[in-house]
Structure formats: C-alpha cells, structure tokens
Amino acid sequence: MAQYEKHEYDVLVIGAGGAGLRAAIEASAEGVSVGLVCKSLLGKAHTVMAEGGIAAALANVDERDGWKVHFADTMRGGQYLNNWRMAELHAKEAPDRVRELEAWGALFDRTVDGRILQRNFGGHQFPRLAHVGDRTGLEMIRTLQDHGIHQGVDVHMECTVVALTKDEGRVSGAFGYEREKGRFKMFSAKAIVLATGGVGRAFKITSNSWEYTGDGHVLAYHAGADLIDMEFVQFHPTGMVWPSSVRGILVTEGVRGEGGILTNSEGRRFMFDDIPELYRSQTADNEEEGWRYTQGDRNARRPPELLTRDHVARCIVREVQEGRGSPHGGVFLDIAWIQEKMANSAAHIRRKLPSMYHQFKELAGIDITAEPMEVGPTTHYAMGGVRVDPDSQMTCVPGLFAAGECGAGLHGANRLGGNSLSDLLVFGKRAGEYAARFVKENGAVVLDEGQIEAISNWALKPLESQTGDSNDNPYQIQYGLQEMMQELVGIARSEEGLNDALSNIANLRHRSENVIAIGNREYNAGWHTALDLHNLMTCAEAIALAALERKASIGAHSRDDYPDKEEPNTKKYNTIVRKGADGEMQILREEIPEVRTDLQEIIEEIG
Amino acid sequence: MAAAKFKVWRGDANTAGFVDYEAEVSEGMVVLDAVHQIQAEQANDLAVRWNCKAGKCGSCSAEVNGHPKLMCMTRLDDLPLEKPVTIEPVRAFSHVKDLVTDVSWNYQVKKKIKKFNPKPPDFEDGTWKMQQEDIDRVQEFRKCIECFLCQDVCHVLRDHHLHDNFIGPRHYVYTAALEMHPLDTENRLGDLKETDGIGYCNITKCCTKVCPEHITITDNAIIPLKERVVDQFYDPVRKLLRILKPKK
Question: What percent of chain A has pLDDT over 70?
Fold first, then answer.
C-alpha cells in the first residue's frame, strides 16, 4: 500500500508564481477551500525574474492608448495565430488587474502627476508597461504573496506534483512528494488549476531555473488535455553571454526601452538593416527618431531594437553567424552611449535599471553606465502549452484548468514583452474564479487507490537500486537533452535536425526510464531531477513534433528548409499534440476560427 | 582550467560535517556553479536551494568561508582559492540536510504582521495619487528578496535564539514598508513593542552589512520604527496628555 499524507481541497492550485497565486486568491475569495502547492519556497517562482513591467493599457502616459490598441499589438506580435478571444479579454482586463495590485500594496513607479508610470517595450505602440525599476516581477509576486497569505489559502511549499488522478472523466486529485523528507502527499480536489510555468530547462542556454520542466504541460497531457503550438518557444534576444557560467541570465528589454542600442563588432546598429514589412510603418528609419521615441516624443516611431523578440533574436543570430559578433559570441547592447544625450546618464541608468547595473557589475565586472554589455538569445518562454477555453481557462478535461505560461493561446507565435505578467493576472484570476464555480456546480470526487499505488511505485523506482552505472546519472541525461535541444530544436530548425532530435529524445527517454538516483528520499536533488526528466522528455518530444509539423517560419519558429511565413494554400492553424489511445504522442492541425467581425475591424483599423 | 578545493557541509540534523570536494574552476564562475558541478558529478543527492541564479529570488543563501552570501552572486575569483572554500548552510534556523535549513519560521512570522490596509482611493477607478518622492523610501524596502541573510547574522536569533519574541531584521523591513506606505492606515507600533521585540535590536548593523540588495536596514527601517515606538509609548508629554485626555 502506498504511504501518503492526505489533504482535501475544493480547488488545488499547482504552482505559486503570478498565475497560481492570483488563481488561489480568487478561488479563495469565492468561498471555496484552496490548497496551493509549489516546488520551491513561496515567493521564489520565476515571476520574480520578470523585470520590465506589466503591459496594461492604463493610458497614464499616452492617452491614445486603450484596450483596442493593446489587442491589436498583441495579435500582430503573435502573427495572428493568437486565440483572439483571449487577446481581447487580456487587453480589456489587464488595467483592472494592475490597479488591483496597487490596492493590495504594490508601489509602481510614478508619473509626475502621481499616477502609475508606464514604459516603452518591444511591439507595444505606446508606453504601456507599469513597472518598478527593473524589478517588476518581484513587486508583483511579493504583493500577491503578502495578500494571499491572509486569504486562508493553505500553502504546501517545496512540494512537487508528479501525477494527476481521475475519477471517471473528471480530474480528482494530485499526487506528489515534499522535498524535505521525501514523503508523499495526496491532494484530493474537485478542481485543479495548473500554473506551473514553462519548460526552459529543456534547453542548455536558458533564463529559467531548475523548476521549469514543463510539469503542468505533461500533467495535463497525461490527463487527456491537448497541448497547442508547442513549437513556439521564445528565445529572448538579450541574455548574458559572458562569463560562461552566467550564460543565459536575462537582460531586460527595458534596457532597450530606455534607449539602449544593439551594435555589432563593426559598431553598426544592425537592427536598421532588416525591418519586417509588418512593422515598417511603425518603425523609425533613423537613429535620431528612435532616440526621441524612447524619450517620450509622441510623434516619433520606435527604434528597431524594439521590434518583436523573435525578430531581434534572429537578427542577433545572423550577425554572430556572419562573423560580426562580440568576442564571446553575442552582440553589444549599449546603454552607456546615452551619455552623449544627457548629463547625468550614469545616475539615470542606475535609477532606471538598478538590477541590471548590479547584475553586470557583480557577475561580469562590467559597469553598464560606462561600457556596453555582451548579449545573445536565451530560452525564455513557452508560447505553446495547455489548450484552454478562453473565458474559463478550463481544459477539455472537466475540472482541470491551466493559466499563465503553462496555458496557451494568448501569445500566438510570439509573445510581446510585458504581456506575460498581465497574462498571469488576467487568466490566473479567471482560472481561480471558474475553478471555484466548477466546484460549486459539481459534486464530490472519489479517489482510486489503484491509481495512487501505481504513481507511488513509479515515483520510487529511481531509488530502488543503489548500484548503477555511475556515468549515467539524472544530471548527465538532462545535460544531454539540453545540449541536443539547443542544437537541433533551437532558433534555427530543419526537417533533418528535428528528426534527429526525435530519435535522440527516444534514446534519452529510454535512459531516463532506467536512471538511478543514489541516496535516500530526504531532500534528494538527484531523485527530483530523475523524476523531472520524464516531463522534460515529453515536452521536448512535443516541441520537436510540432516544429516538424509546421513547415513555415513564423514568429518564434524558424525552419531553414521552409523560410516562408505561410504554407501554400493553407489557412492559419494551431498544432495540437495529444496522447493517443495507444499511449503514443499524436500531432495534428486545427484551423483557427475566423476572428470575430468587430475584432477584425479593430485589427484592420489600428493595423 | 584550474581545480579548487571545497569543503561542503553534508548530513542532516543528526550527523553532519564537512566533506572535501574538488571542482574545475572556469572564468567568472560563482560558488553555486561549483556546488552544481559537485552535485552533478560527485554527489547527486546533495541538497541545495536555488532558483534564479541571478540574485533576484534569494533562495541560495549560505555561509561561504564563514560569510553569509548568496551563492549565485559570489564569484570564486573573489575568494582565496589557495585554501579550500567552505560552504555551509545558514545557521540561524534548524538544519534540514546539507546546505538546506528550515526557514519556515519566517513565513509564520510574516503572517502575524498586520496586513496592508489602504485608505479609500483618490480616484473613481480605484487608484490613488502618489508622488515618486513619497514612495522612494518604501521602494527601498520592497527590494527585499527574502534571502534571510539578515536573519542569519542577527545575534538575537543566531546566538540568543529569541525566535519567539523577536521577528528579525527582515520583518522589521517588512513592517517598515507597511508603516511608511503612503496609503496604509494600520498601526503596528503596539505589536512592534509588545510581541515583535524591536527593543532587542541593539543596532549593531550586522544585517545591513550582509544585505545583498543593499537595503539600509538599520538606519532606514529599524531606527525609524524604534523612534516611532518611543514617540508613541515613552514620550512624557504624550503620556501626560493621555492621562489628562483619555481616549473615548
């Protein structure tokens, strides 16, 4: 018999970043009992790493902004593969979600007339990002955390869910282990909200921490939900490239929003060399105009450094590949140059970008107020994920919801900077609200001991044998996967590489199924890594399969063998990954429904 | 690449001690990189907390060569590598395993501090008017990443174990952020005096010295809170007024 500690909730939220916390707060406010489970300590989730800001059309800085413009910008940024209903809800509701944070104690930077200040960001036509210097994510998670702990939510810190259970067609609970003693916990729940974030750890160069192993994606997949658009993995254009030990750590887009420029080894602002047609009319054609835009000139157009992330990342890769990169294989990001434009530039930079100043000073020995940074693309965000109903965030499995990065639809082929924090708030709230509603409308669930027993046995397997091949430990398998994914499923993809990747994944999966974790159950990182490997493998396979399916180069997905944005005679579609009846992964396509007429008019009007 | 020697604290609450390791050191490497290397190659079950690896989440607190540090922000080339680098867990809380300690006390303490309670909004959309200069000092406190290094070095917790009567520098910073928040209407001074033990702090400023976010904990948070407590409870003029005009 499996040994476990049992907990019972109406709603269980898995993940305590922005989306999970917001969902838990909302569900609790609806009067149902709520459990919140997180892999790390509370307040350490990846939301804390978000730097630039929360996109919301508050129109505090430029009154021409509004939800319609935000909607149109989001759709354009996503190459119109977005779920338009989600984009509509997101643009309409983000301002209220930001104001709500202020009511819960958040202190955003202010305009001169005392309102919430907003800054420029890539792909946003107007200054739209509510922010606190370059530590907006910290402000957001702390606000939600400090508010949430008084809302009667039961928090299980350092607890990892490894599988969901079902009662007939419905989700009935989640099974996991707590890190400290390695004991099992079984959470019975009438509704479950997945808010587990992304899958950055499948790649070698990433801004993501150890936690981001696609847990929610895979829990949903095995429970019978669909994953959509998994091929769209965002490579943030500016990660640190040197020293090698910090490669991948994020450098906020806020640097460019504040006037930072990208240059190559020849000192050329190469972003002016390739401005996509879709953005030409909105983009400055000279350096002076770009600078004026960053300083708030309403008649200036944005500099090409603030084009969408997919495009900027590709331009950087091109410069490096063609031999015009920086000494350590990136390009230069220069904010120090603004000393030509303002007298007190060093103090200004330190005030606007304090954590970037700190990060480069301490980790690279570079003073960003005096010299340029070296940057290159880093795996940052999964646009793809669990398919949900746009209004309720419920998956096709009754009682199972997903929100935030592990949910999908809002961002289409490419996410705009700043749209993730607002995504967490808007859809975290909706998921919590509808999960509570689901609980009220549906009866109790019954747990099946057989399912629990099987999960428990599976989870203990890596610890069973303590004498294994010492060359094959969980970390080595993970490194192998990361190297391979970076090379074959990274920014530039091809049919040959993707097929190669799929056979590599099959091998690695075989190795991971027999991997041994030495030691006992107590806070054993090797055991945790061994279990996480299964999620990484499944996500890696989904990403590679979807990337193989989409024979085009659009948004964050680039195929060397299919450089065109669209496939001939093909309407816009989503790729769908689901678990077949035989247990094998299936890939299919589904046409995206026509945009509602009034929304289509907005797109055409705003452009 | 050169190899460096490390002494890493291994074991649990029952038996623990330093274990020697060697790891390859490359340019710009931080202590956490060495720990990860040791974990991946020599000690798969090594327990260590970490997340962002960029000094933003405050998970990887430890004592490196006896100094409270974030391992992700401590570069090996700043340490004397001719002798072994010692890596130990923070000591103000009970030990769990290897480099991990039980920090749950901090979460319990925070929950007891009266929550943010704003005045009614200034505008119909539910927002307030606040000037940047009015929030600057609170924004300093809100930079806190809850690494608990300040708690680790505070002798009231570390040496005198007054966890039941003293909330520690982190929570004075948290209280200060609430008390000085331009919108907050709550009064936490009674709690500071009676249950939170602010009187135990004798402003040695150890907390300020180790704060990786460079928050001026003692000068900007603790001392002003002490002054407010004194003003409210020990000012003789006020006391006289209270006697003459008791609150209804």
Answer: 99
> Which CATH number do you get for residue B28?
3.10.20.30
Q: How far apart are CA A429 and CA A438, in angstroms?
A: 14
Of B39, B74, B101, the residue at which a domain comes to its end is B101
Asked whether residue B131 falls in the same domain as residue B45, the answer is: no
Show which residues of A are catalytic.
236, 256
- The helix/strand count (H/E) of chain B reads as 10, 7
> Does residue A363 contact residue A319 with C-beta atoms inside 8 Å?
no
Express each pLDDT in A527-550 by its tens digit. 999 999 999 999 999 999 999 999
- The pLDDT tens digits of the residues spanning A318-360 come to 999 999 999 999 999 999 999 999 999 999 999 999 989 999 9
Residue of B nearest to A476 (CA): B40
| Nearest Cβ partner for A519 among B44, B48, B126 | B44
For the segment A482-496, the average pLDDT, to the nearest whole number, is 96
Interface mutation target, options A463, A523, A527, A528, chain B, most CBs of B under 10 Å = A523
Do residues B134 and B236 both lie within one domain? yes
Indicate if B123 and B224 belong to the same structural domain.
yes
Shared domain for B16 and B137, answered yes or no, is no
Residue A470 has pLDDT above 60, yes or no: no
- For chain B, the domain total comes to 2
Q: Which residues of A touch B90 (CB under 8 A)?
A: none
Mark whether B115 and B16 lie in a shared domain: no
End-to-end CA distance of chain B: 75
**Per-residue model confidence (pLDDT) at position B245:** 79
Cα–Cα distance for residue pair A366/A241, rounded to 1 Å: 13
Q: Which chain B residues are closer than 8 Å to A210 by Cβ?
A: 50-51
Q: At residue B247, does pLDDT exceed 80?
A: no
Domain holding B114: CATH number? 1.10.1060.10
The pLDDT score that the predictor gives to residue A100 is 97
Per-residue pLDDT band for A265 (boundaries 50, 70, 90) equals very high
pLDDT of A604 reads 96
Q: Say yes or no: B120 and B222 in one domain.
A: yes
Q: Calculate how close chain B gets to A520, using CA atoms only, in Å.
A: 8
Contact assignment for A209 to B52 by CB distance below 8 Å: yes
B239 pLDDT more than 90: no
Among the candidates B68, B101, B134, a domain finishes at B101
Place of tokens 């501090």: B113
Instruction: Assess whether pLDDT exceeds 60 at residue B121.
Output: yes
| Dist CA A50 CA A139 (whole Å) | 10
Q: Are residues B55 and B112 in the same domain?
A: no
Domains of chain A (ranges, CATH numbers): 235-379 (3.90.700.10), 465-576 (1.20.58.100)
Nearest CA in chain A to B29: A245
Cis bond before residue B212 (omega within 30° of 0) = no
Cα separation, A109 vs A351, whole angstroms: 11
Which among B47, B51, B125 has CB closest to A211?
B51
Beta carbons of A67 and A92 less than 8 angstroms apart: yes
Phi, psi of A214 (to 5 degrees): 65, 30
- Pair of tokens at residue B173: 């910073």
User: By residue range, what is the domain housing residue B83?
Assistant: 2-101
In this model, does residue B248 exceed pLDDT 80? no
How high is the pLDDT of residue B1?
A: 62
Averaged pLDDT score across all residues of chain A? 96
Verify that B68 and B172 share a domain, yes or no.
Answer: no
